[in-house]
Design a protein that fits this description.
The complex is a heterodimer. Chain A is mainly beta. Chain A contains 1 helix and 10 strands. In chain A, a hairpin with an 8-residue loop joins strand 1 and strand 2. The chains are: A mainly beta, B alpha/beta.
């Protein structure tokens, strides 16, 4: 028991120093099996006192993954890569349908509804965080994941 | 006395006929086409995996048309999902009178075969078509679709910016309403229904 407490105490400074975001409402869009591109959505909350900057994202299921911004320009939906995304201290950032999202390209195999997809977020301080998101069939749900909250998009 | 009775019956009949005629004329089922849409759209011929597809092939049906591309991770699957769900919300008789067309603006990567599998995943009634860049430019101009495919992309992961309208074409082949991927399927189904009588 004492030993465990010691280990826990030893680990404490590390976990406090590393950027750690809370993951809410994450999901990956089910796309046709022939598609090699999909999007992942998630709300990331930062309980810490310092902002956390996401500088990259990777996934085993995709040859290439990146943060994407979506904007309407001259009546066209434009997507562009986001170099960095800051989650403010005590704030949150929503990656949601119709807005910023994680783009998964060059899918290595077709994803099925219910599959677990592992993503690694890379932070500006050099640390990483793994998240596991489920593939959701959102056809006909206006792009929202089933059972997800519908507010704030 | 008998003549007067006949007169009443004739008058009643005339009222009923007038009432039915008025109901037919005034029914809300065939609303006017908004002026902004009256010069938009038109027939086209593009390639599907089963050969040429013309919009006029669907005369007598309500058609939902969407322009996009398969490497589009967000807006396009949302739009096709909404189109499919709107069709499913119609009753069996109405469902026989609807179709969908997904037009890819990215023929470099989207072959008719790939498009058919992609579009059919959302609903078998949605056909996937594309054409040469010249053909697509013409259709896009007619339908006032704004889009940009990079000329010389660095790799195959390029994105295509495009307008995101879902067009409703009435059984006479005219564009009568515009929606997008954020429109509720129920609203689209309701609008289709009004054009299906």
């Amino acid at each position: 028991m004492k030993k465990m407490l010691l280990i826990a105490l030893l680990m404490l400074p590390f976990s406090a120093a590393a950027a750690e975001l809370q993951v809410k409402d994450g999901w990956v869009r089910l796309v046709p099996p022939v598609a090699d591109t999909t999007a992942a959505y998630v709300t990331l909350a930062n309980p810490g006192d310092a902002p956390v900057v996401i500088v990259g994202v990777a996934s085993d299921v995709a040859g290439m993954a990146m943060l994407h911004a979506m904007t309407m320009q001259n009546g066209r939906m434009e997507m562009s890569g986001l170099e960095r995304l800051e989650v403010p201290a005590h704030g949150e950032v929503s990656l949601a349908p119709g807005g910023n999202h994680i783009m998964l390209m060059e899918l290595k195999h077709a994803l099925a509804a219910g599959d677990a997809v592992e993503l690694t977020l890379q932070y500006g301080d050099g640390t990483t965080q793994k998240l596991t998101l489920k593939v959701v069939d959102a056809r006909g749900h206006m792009g929202q994941g089933m059972g997800m909250h519908h507010g704030g998009n | 006395m008998a003549d007067m009775k006949k007169g009443w019956i004739a008058a009643l009949l005339a009222l009923v006929v007038a009432g039915v005629a008025a109901a037919l004329l005034l029914r809300p089922s065939q609303p006017p086409i908004p002026p902004a849409l009256q010069t938009l759209g038109g027939d086209f011929s593009l390639q599907s995996s089963a050969g040429a597809v013309r919009l006029s092939d669907f005369h007598g049906k309500a058609v939902l048309v969407y322009f996009g591309y398969t490497h589009c991770p967000d807006a396009c699957p949302m739009a096709l999902g909404v189109m499919a769900e709107a069709m499913r919300q119609l009753d069996a008789r109405e469902q026989e009178k609807v179709a969908g067309i997904f037009i890819s603006l990215d023929p470099r990567r989207d072959t008719p075969e790939l498009l058919q599998k992609y579009a059919g995943f959302f609903d078998p009634r949605i056909l996937g078509v594309t054409g040469s860049s010249t053909e697509l430019a013409k259709v896009a101009a007619d339908w006032r679709v704004s889009y940009e495919v990079p000329d010389k992309p660095a790799d195959t992961n390029y994105t295509v910016s495009h307008s995101t309208f879902i067009y409703l074409v009435n059984p006479a082949g005219k564009v009568v309403a515009l929606f997008d991927e954020k429109t509720g399927p129920g609203e689209i189904a309701g609008t289709i229904r009004r054009w299906l009588d």
